[in-house]
Prior knowledge:
Blueprint: E1 2-3, E2 5-13, E3 19-25, E4 31-37, E5 40-46, E6 59-63, E7 73-80, E8 83-88, E9 91-96, E10 104-105, E11 111-112, H1 121-124, E12 132-138, E13 141-142, H2 143-148, E14 204-210, E15 216-223, E16 226-233, E17 240-244
Amino acid sequence: MKTLKDVISLKFKTSESEGVIFHGEGQQGDYITLELKKAKLVLNLNLGINQLGSIFGHTSVTTGSLLDDHHWHSIIIERHGRNINLTLDRHMQHFRTNGEFDYLDLDYEITFGGMPFSGKPSSNSRKNFKGCMESINYNGNNITDLAKRKKLEPSSVGNLSFSCVEPHTVPVFFNATSYLEVPGRPSQDLFSVSFLFRTWNPSGLLLFSNFADNLGNVEVDINEGKVSVHINVTQVKKNRIDISS
C-alpha cells in the first residue's frame, strides 16, 4: 500500500510495560511502529529514504505514562503527508515528520500485537504485546472483526482468543475521608506489607501501624509525589528512620 493519508485507531489494556502494538515496513525504507516502552507510548515513523541515504526521515514521538495499569487506553493516529496527529486518551499531540517524503509505502504485511523477526537488530530486541486490544481500525478496515471472522490471510500467528481475561485482583477505592483498618499480628517479630496503588494526589497517608507494647510506629506516605517510609522506635537513641523514593 502506498498512502498519502492514514487513520489508525485502537484500544488496548495491559499490565506489561513493553510490547509492540503494531508494525509495518516497506522496501523503500518506510516503516511505522507503535509500541510500549517503559509503560509509555512510542511512535516511530519513517516515510522513506532516497537512494543515497542522505535524507534522514526517522521520527520518534513519545506520549503518556504508566500505561501498564490494565485500564483501557484509546489511540488515534491521523496522518496527512508529513503532518501527524497522535491522540492518546483524548490528549492530542501534533508533529511533523522528518525527511522530504509524503507517502507511506508499506509493501510487507502489517502486524498487530508484535512484529515478525526480520533479522534486523531492531526486531529481535522488541517484545510482543501481551494484553487485550479492541476496536482496531486501519484506514476504514475493522481489523478485529475481520480477524474474528477469519477474513484475513494469513490472519494470526499463535493463539488468539476473542475475549479479555481479567486479573484476579480486587481494587479498593479510598476517598479523602475513608480508610481500611485490619487487625494486627501480635507476637510477630516480622512486619511485612506490600500493595499496588495509583493516585492523582501528590500527598496522602498510605499506611500507618503502631507497634505493640508502645515500641513505636511505622508510617508510609506520599509527600509531593515521593513515597516516604517513617519508622519511629521509642526505646533506642536513633529513634527515627526515614526512607524516601
